[in-house]
Amino acid sequence: MRILLRTTSGTAIAVLVALALCAPDTSAASGGTADLPRWRWPLAGNREVVEPFRAPAHEYGAGHRGVDMDASIDAVVTAPADGTVAFRGTVVDRPLLTIEHDGGLVSTFEPLRTTLDPGDAVSVGQEIGFVDVGGHTPAGALHLGIRRDGTYINPMLLFGDPPRAILLPCCDPL
After folding, report:
1. pTM of the prediction?
2. CA–CA separation, 56 vs 64, rounded Å?
3. Residue 125 clears pLDDT 80, i.e. is over it
4. Is 142 helix (H, G, I), strand (E, B) or coil?
5. DSSP state of 121
6. Which pLDDT tens digit goes with each residue over 11-23?
7. What percent of the chain shows pLDDT beyond 70?
8. Using an 8 Å Cβ cutoff, are 68 and 143 in contact?
9. Distance between CA atoms of 110 and 118, rounded to whole angstroms?
């Protein structure tokens, strides 16, 4: 019996080690940040976020799939990275601009008034439009959503480290 247990345990450990060595690296697909580029903030002035990113619990769940940045109506917006305009148009009640970037990254700005057309190349720091009105953002705010390989990520990951969570005590001690 003792020999059987040793053999079974040894086989199980060998199988687990083999599986661990052969498993694909999913850090990029799961939102690993080590390989993310650093982008340039798209607005002049202070870097103030009025509504942060809130990841949904699942693909169709509630959340805030981007950040709303403090700005003024008609503020100049610049490209945070090199890319190609993929979409310009009005969705529901707000003007949008979507830019495809290297590395499977796609940025969407709203509400943004622009004269750029799909296919236009943009360079980091280039003027891409002006903050407009419409959508869910307060007047004068600019929403920026970022997708990586089709999944929304926190845009702040591209502009430096996002603020760290601070855990506060929740209850009086017993």
Report:
1. 0.74
2. 7
3. yes
4. strand
5. E
6. 444 433 343 333 3
7. 76
8. yes
9. 16
Q: Are strands 112-113 and 127-131 parallel, antiparallel or unpaired?
A: antiparallel
Determine the Cα angle at 21 with ends 148 and 6, to 5°: 145
Q: In whole angstroms, what is the distance from residue 81 CA to residue 106 CA?
A: 10
Structure token digits, residue 164: 């760290």
Geometric angle at alpha carbon 91, from 137 and 45, rounded to 5°:
35
| CA end-to-end span of the chain | 50
Is 50 exposed, middle or buried (CB count within 10 Å of its CB: 0-12, 13-18, 19+)?
middle
Give me the phi and psi of 127, to 5 degrees please.
Answer: -65, 125
Q: How many CA atoms lie within 13 A of 101 on its CB side?
A: 20
Within 10 A of 140 (CB to CB), how many other CB atoms are there? 16
Q: Which of 103, 102, 121, 108 is nearest to 77 (CA)?
A: 108
Amino acid letter at 138? P
CB of 74 closer than 8 Å to CB of 80: no
